[in-house]
Each structure stands twice: as C-alpha cells, then as structure tokens.
Amino acid sequence: MKLIFLGPPGSGKGTQAKTVAEHFGVPHISTGDMLREAVARETPAGIKAKGYMGKGSLVPDEIINAILLERIERQDCLGGFLLDGFPRTLSQAELLSAKLEELNISLSAVIEIEATFDSIAKRICGRRSCPNCGASYHIEYSPPDKEDICNQCGKSLVRRADDTQEVVRLRYSEYLEKTRPLTDYYRNKGILHSVNGELPIDEVYRTIIALVETL
Predict the structure, then answer these.
(1) For residue 87, is the peptide bond before it cis, meaning its omega torsion is within 30 degrees of 0?
(2) So where are the chain's domains?
(3) What is the pLDDT of residues 6-62, one digit of tens each?
(4) Which residue numbers are catalytic?
C-alpha cells in the first residue's frame, strides 16, 4: 500500500495521515521529518541538503527526491508507505513518478482532503494554547471553561503569531497555486480520490479507511 495525501494547510491532512498510517501499519513519511532524519543520518543526499538548510535556502527538488528514495528503499517501507506533504509541486510529482517507475513501484492512491478557505480559517484562527503547560483549545470546538483561561493551570491562553487570517490566506493561496494542480496530474493517472475534510475528524478517518480498503 503506497499512498500520497494532499490537502491545504489546516485541512487535517497531517492528523489523518498519521492515524491512517498507524491503522495500516505503514511508515508515515512527512517532508520535514524526512529531511531532518536524512541530515541526522548523514546520508549522501542529507549531507547535500544540510548545506542548503544551513544557508536558509530551499532544498532543490532533485535532492528532496533523492532523500525520499533513500527513505522508501529502507526495510520498513517494503510493505508500503504514506507520503504526507510530498510532492508539493508539479515538478516534484513528475520527478517522483519517473523515479518510482525506475524502481518498478506503483502508487496505490492519492487521497485529496478537500476544505474551503473559510473552514480552514475558522479552524486555525480559533486555536489557543497555554504557554505554561502546553494544553490546547479551540474557542468553538473545545473551549476552556473560562474564556481565555487554561483549565489545567489557570494561566492566560495565547494564539500563535501565524494563526491569523492573513497568514492562513497566504498559505492557502500558495497551496492553490503550487500544489492543487497535482490533483489534475494524479486524476489523469486514475489514482486520485477526494474526501470532504470539513466533516468531523472521525468521520473523515472512517471514510479514508473504507476507501483505501477497496483498493
């Protein structure tokens, strides 16, 4: 079982990817974790990536693809894997397809978790956390007993600096411009499946599990 999860920031993609990977017993591979691990392991591509990351530069697609291939060729991926956050662009997707074809590896499915800007903004901008104990809340879905006060330790809750409409809109626009075109790319390959990410988390999870089990 070899899966790719797509979806805009705040759609719940990362949460679903982790739980779905656990359910099927395959590695959950996210771009950030994959890069950090490759650098720590000092793989050939990881060493190259470290040079770019150390200068604050974007790691080129070719190096990210090489790191991905190093990762999926490891023993724990023999039974499958779930890619979360990669590919992000059409060029990355094309490079990935070419490399997987060389390795005679076929993707089982690409799962797109759909969500509108309004629903994503509502989720993200309503998040609150306690700077003291780390407890998390949402002003609508899981509010504290007292407004802006942590249930656990009584400290004032805060909102992350990037949990704003402006930042969410920027990230959503970037997704539409760079990553959303991948849906047409994978739809043309006949492996794209779309799921309504605005449903309750457990319902989205059950939908994805049922979908994948039919593949």
Answers:
(1) yes
(2) 2-119+179-213
(3) 999 889 898 899 999 999 999 999 888 888 888 898 888 888 888 888 777 778 888
(4) 13, 88, 127, 160, 171
Here the tokens at position 90 are 């059409």
> What percentage of residues in the chain have a pLDDT greater than 70?
100
Q: pLDDT band for 121, please (50, 70, 90 cuts).
A: very high
Q: Which residues contact 55 (CB under 8 A, 6 or more apart)?
A: none
Give the CA distances from residue 197 to residues 59, 111, 112, 183, in Å, rounded to whole numbers and listed in that order.
30, 11, 9, 15
2-119+179-213: CATH superfamily? P-loop containing nucleotide triphosphate hydrolases (3.40.50.300)
Are 198 and 115 within 8 A, CB to CB?
A: yes
Could you tell me the pTM of the whole model? 0.84
